[in-house]
Design goal:
- This protein has about 210 residues and is α/β, with parallel strands linked by helices.
- It has two domains: about 80 residues, 2-Layer Sandwich (Alpha-Beta Plaits); about 110 residues, Formyl transferase, N-terminal domain (Rossmann fold), CATH 3.40.50.170.
- Helices cover about 35% and strands about 30% of the residues.
- The protein has six helices and nine strands.
- The strands form two sheets. The chain has a five-stranded parallel beta sheet with strand order 7-6-5-8-9, with helices on both faces. A four-stranded antiparallel beta sheet has the order 2-3-1-4, with helices on one face.
- Helix 4 links the parallel strand 6 and strand 7.
- Helix 1 packs antiparallel against helix 2.
C-alpha cells in the first residue's frame, strides 16, 4: 500500500553507531522522504532518541518488514503515526481545568488530529467540562496518603487499562504517579507543565 501523506516515527534504543544511517536508508528504500528529523542521546543513560517526519509514496509493507529488522538489530522501541490514523487520547486533570479545556477546544476545532476518548480526574469539577464537549468522564478520587492513595492509584490504573488509549496527557493532574503506572505507559504518557522542572514546580504543586 502506498500513500503520499505525512507520518511521524519515533525511536528509542541503546546508543550505538549506525542507527541514523540505517533508519534513513530504510525510509529512502521504501520511497519515503525525511521532512524533519530531531535526535538526542542521553549521556547519563546512553539512550538514543529520534523523531522523524516522513512524506512521500511510502511502501508501508516494505517499511514494516525493514523496521522489524532494525528493531531486532538495535533493541529498538518505536511508535508510528501513520497517515489516516487518529490517536486515541485520555486527558487526566485535577481542579485546574484550563489545560484540559485548551486541549478539548483545539481537538474540536481540528487543530489536534486526535480522538479524546475520556477525561479522567480526581476532582468532580472536571465532569462539567467533559459534558460540555461531549466527552466521557471518569472520576477516580481518593486521598493522598496511605491506603486511600493506593486505592486511588489502582483505580486510575484500571481506568487507563480499560480505555486503552494511544496517549495519556497529564494536563495538570496534580498527583505523583507511582512507578508501576509510569512504566506501564512508558512512551505513551506526557505531562504538561509550563516551566522547567524541578526548579520551577510552582506553589503547592501536590
Amino acid at each position: 500500500m502506498t500513500t503520499d501523506t505525512h507520518s511521524i516515527l519515533t525511536l528509542q534504543c541503546p546508543d550505538q553507531p549506525g542507527i541514523v544511517a540505517a533508519v534513513a536508508n530504510l525510509i529512502a528504500d521504501v520511497g519515503g522522504n525525511i521532512m524533519n528529523a530531531d535526535q538526542h542521546t542521553d549521556r547519563d543513560s546512553e539512550v538514543f532518541l529520534q523523531r522523524i517526519e516522513i512524506d512521500g509514496p511510502v511502501d508501508w509493507a516494505a517499511f514494516d518488514l525493514g523496521l522489524a529488522h532494525l528493531i531486532e538489530r538495535f533493541s529498538m522501541q518505536h511508535t508510528l503515526h501513520r497517515p489516516g490514523t487518529r490517536d486515541r487520547v485520555v486527558i487526566a486533570c485535577s481542579a485546574e481545568l484550563y489545560c484540559a479545556a485548551d486541549l478539548l477546544t483545539r481537538a474540536s476545532l481540528g487543530e489536534l488530529d486526535v480522538d479524546i476518548v475520556a477525561i479522567v480526574s480526581d476532582k468532580p469539577a472536571a465532569g462539567e467540562l467533559a459534558a460540555q464537549h461531549g466527552v466521557p468522564f471518569r472520576l477516580v478520587d481518593g486521598g493522598l496518603a496511605g491506603d486511600s492513595r493506593a486505592e486511588q492509584e489502582a483505580a486510575f490504573a484500571a481506568v487507563l487499562d480499560e480505555l486503552e488509549p494511544d496517549l495519556v496527557v497529564l494536563a495538570r493532574y496534580m498527583r505523583i504517579l507511582p512507578e508501576a503506572i509510569t512504566l506501564r505507559w512508558n512512551g505513551r504518557m506526557i505531562n504538561i507543565h509550563h516551566s522547567f522542572l524541578p526548579s520551577f514546580a510552582g506553589a503547592k504543586p501536590y
